Amino acid sequence: MAYDNDNIFAKILRGEIPCNKVYEDEFALAFRDIAPQAKVHTLVIPKGAYVSFDDFSTQASDAEIIGFVRAVQKTAALEGVVESGYRLLANHGVDGGQEVPHFHVHIAGGERLGALFSRR
Ligand code: AMP
Known about the structure:
Blueprint lengths: L7 H6 L7 E4 L3 E5 L7 E7 L6 H7 L2 H17 L7 E4 L3 H4 L8 E5 L11
Antiparallel strand pairs: 1-2, 2-3, 3-5, 4-5
This protein binds adenosine monophosphate.
């Protein structure tokens, strides 16, 4: 799947639409989810143009991958959920339910989360 430069997270990275920023460095940007599913629900995205985890993990440089993982930890720490615990989630593709085609990790916490999977 080719990267779509007009996806909403690409626009956030370019500063064309606002976000509620939590953390930023040369590798990543973290901001609050616009429709939070938990008391803490924050997204971390790489600065590079990667469609999903599959694209990122196969195409990104070692420095980008390390920088991104460190940024996820820093974001969790800034959100105050390291002690209490949190869940990381990355949706890839149709069956994963990915809506925005720019790789992102969800950090969810701030309360006891329910079961990971539901069958509706
Ligand atoms: P996913 O289903 O993993 O692709 O998740 C996409 C997430 O992006 C959803 O949780 C949305 O609520 C969130 N989202 C969509 N647009 C925005 C936005 N402009 N700012 C912050 N979060 C957004």
